[in-house]
Each structure stands twice: as structure tokens, then as C-alpha cells.
Amino acid sequence: MEIVILPDAAACGELIASAMAELVERKPDALLGVATGSTPLPVYQALAAKVRGGSVDVSRARICQLDEYVGLPAGHPESYRSVVLREVVEPLGLTEESFFGPDGAAEDVAAEAIAYDRSLAAAGGVDLQLLGIGTDGHIGFNEPCSSLASRTRIKTLTRQTRLDNARFFDSLEEVPHHVITQGIGTILEARHLVLLATGEGKADAVAAAVEGPLSALVPASALQLHPHATVVVDEAAASGL
Ligand code: GLP
């Protein structure tokens, strides 16, 4: 695992956006797996700036989701489909046609999760998966104790994760209890994993993931199993290393 420590979130965003731009230059139809949350925003902003400046052409790139809330209609402003369209797809000048993810409002959510897992492989696999990390060490929505071999499936959110994500909703009650998330085994199939963490609030989770033992209690520690994993952190998130 490669650890990159940079002074601040903007520098982290710039570095990862450059890695994405290089990938797309090498492989124009690369499949980029994107994460939601506040942490990756500087990456998307830096990549969109490169697109606007003409230094990279992402018009053939494809984007896919890491996870999705169950029960929110696709058009709900906080469904991860809406979030990724708003924060990634549209700023990059792409359309919905370049983008796919699981439907959290599907009638048969379990079947939808399996179908989404298969669609990733059918699309040729994820070339670069960007990950954030939860304060409890989760990746995607794989909460502690998720199997390290898990596939895309329904999960129940912990109270802590619902509290962490309540800021995007009007109240805690509105935060869904269930989600579809790529499993840890699914995530590990991406060719390059890039985990980004910024801020002191992530320092303990980063230290446990990077320097702790491989453990289902810390889902992000699964990156230790991957042959090409890069952890990008600012100085605050690196403070526990
Ligand atoms: C959610 C997402 C994760 C993300 C996490 C951290 O749980 N499912 O993919 O990593 O939030 O979000 P933030 O970056 O806002 O701290």
C-alpha cells in the first residue's frame, strides 16, 4: 500500500484528479468508480477544472457508483444517483449515458444488488475506484464486521453512519436505514484503489486501516490485500500514523 501525505485537501484533490486524467489519457473509456460524501469534492472540482481548461478529454470515460440508499427515488436530491450526477457527471460535461449505478428504489432490491455487481464486471471492471472512509472505518457502506469477501448487497447502516450523514437531510429520521453497497470483495476487484481521507476526524480510522491488523472490524483495512492501493491523506488525517 502506498501512502501519500500532502499538506491539505486541495493538494490531495489535485493529485488524485491528475491520476484520473492520466488514466483517461491512457485509456479513454476508463471506468471510474466514484464515492460520495464531502471528502472527494476537491477531486471532482480539480478534474472538472482540467476538463474546462482543455488539458484532459474525458468525453469517453464512464462513471459508476459505489453505493446507494435504499428507498429514495432516483430523483431525490440526496439519492447517490442525484449526488453523483450533480457533483461528478455534469461538471465533467458528461451525460447520464456515461453513468450507471444501482437503483435503490427497485422493487427487488436484493436482485438489483446482484445485477449491479454483475454489471461492473460486464463493463470490463472498474479501472480506478475512489474511496472515502467512514469514522468507523467503513468503505462504501460496508460497516464494521462486513465480510472481507462480500459482494454487492443490502446493508443496514449503523446509528453512527446515519448520524454522520444526517447533515444531508432535514432530520435524522429521514436518513434511510438500508443501502446497496458494492461489497468489499467487489471493491477489491478494481484495478487501482485510491482512498482519500482529510481532516482530524478521520485520523483514527486511517491509522487503524493502514497500520492496524487486517480485520473485518475495520473494513478499510481490506486495502492491505490489494496489489495497487494508494491512500492519500492530508496532514490532519495522517496525524495518527
Ligand atoms: C458515506 C459514503 C462513503 C463515504 C463516507 C464518508 O458513508 N457511503 O463512501 O466515504 O460517507 O463521507 P465523508 O467524506 O463526507 O466523511
List keywords for this structure.
three-stranded antiparallel β-sheet, 31% helix, 17% strand, allosteric enzyme, Glucosamine-6-phosphate deaminase, globular, Rossmann fold, alpha/beta, 241 residues, binds 2-amino-2-deoxy-6-O-phosphono-alpha-D-glucopyranose, hydrolase
Give the beta-strand count. 10
The overall pLDDT average reads 97
The class by helix and strand makeup works out as: alpha/beta
Q: What is the helix fraction of residues, given as a range?
A: 25-40%
CATH topology, by name, is: Rossmann fold
Order of helices and strands: EHEHEEHEHEEHEHEHE
Helical stretch tally: 7
Which hetero compounds are present in the coordinates? 2-amino-2-deoxy-6-O-phosphono-alpha-D-glucopyranose
Query: How many strands, which pairing sense, and closed or not: the largest β-sheet?
Result: 7 strands, parallel
**Cα shape:** globular
Strand neighbour order, sheet with most strands: 1-10-9-6-2-3-5
How much strand? Answer: 15-25%
Through-space gap between termini: 14 Å
Report on the structure:
The protein is α/β, with parallel strands linked by helices. The chain is built from 7 helices and 10 strands. Helix 1 packs across helix 2 (41-53). The radius of gyration is 16 Å and the shape is globular. The model has no long low-confidence stretch (mean pLDDT 97). 2-amino-2-deoxy-6-O-phosphono-alpha-D-glucopyranose (GLP) binds next to loops.
